[in-house]
Amino acid sequence: MFYEPRLNNSGLPIDPLKALVVPRPIGWISSVDGAGAVNLAPFSFFNLVADAPPIVIFAPSGQKPGGGIKDSRRNVEATGAFVVNLATWDLREAMNATSAGLPAGTDEAAAAGLTMVPSRLVNAPRVALSPVALECRYLQTVSLPSLDPAEPNDVIFGDVVGIHIDDRLITPEGRVDITIAKPIARLGYSLYTTVSETFAMKRPG
Ligand SMILES: Cc1cc2nc3c(=O)[nH]c(=O)nc-3n(C[C@H](O)[C@H](O)[C@H](O)COP(=O)(O)O)c2cc1C
């Protein structure tokens, strides 16, 4: 089959796009507002896009339920800081709970029963139980084209200035065994996968 996403003419009950670009890592973004209230939300339009220096992106799209830009974007632009927490199998229910569209200023971490701890270098806390956290300084926002002007498509860039790794993930050889953390990643529809198996391939040359 072939379809054009702008025409939404796949003939399928749900546009399959997000079931095709998989698995998408989940950036579980913590931030604070100007008054210091904690915000935590998952974003699967998320990735590492450079490594020297390390730069991540996440993309808040659309609006909050009552209208207005998403709290994560507003906070990051206002305070210049955010943390990417690794969403894992053990934290899956809490991660999902933090995607609820709660009013600005509501502590989504507390609502999901999560303890937050201070970061070292940035003014945004991290999820205490998450085994990996990237402390980020806000770099810039790029506004992408949108099919509906009322539904923004924005990409936030952040410079990773500090990295926490739970020592449990580090092998005697000094490598990270990420399968110990069991990250979860987004597929289409309401589906997820976990990183629990790996295989190695050496690059040619
Ligand atoms: C696994 C998962 C991935 C998500 N990915 C995105 C995303 O990439 N972009 C987005 O705008 N919303 C995404 N959402 C929805 C947001 O988490 C949700 O709109 C949230 O309320 C935004 O919170 P905020 O207003 O506190 O920033 C995702 C939700 C889940 C459960």
> Any idea what the CATH superfamily is called?
Electron Transport, Fmn-binding Protein, Chain A
The tally of strands reads 12
CATH architect. name: Roll
Number of helices: 4
Enter the CATH topology name: Pnp Oxidase, Chain A
Order of helices and strands: HEEEEEHEHHEEEEEE
Helix content: 10-25%
Largest sheet: 7 strands, antiparallel
Q: Ligands bound here? A: flavin mononucleotide
Distance between the termini: 38 Å
Low-confidence stretches are none
User: What's the structural domain tally?
Assistant: 1
Major sheet: order of its strands?
Answer: 3-2-6-9-10-5-4
Q: What characteristic shape results from the CA principal axes?
A: globular
Mean pLDDT: 96
As a percent range, the share of strand residues is: 25-35%
Radius of gyration: 18 Å
Query: What structural class is derived from the secondary structure elements?
Result: mainly beta
CATH class: Mainly Beta
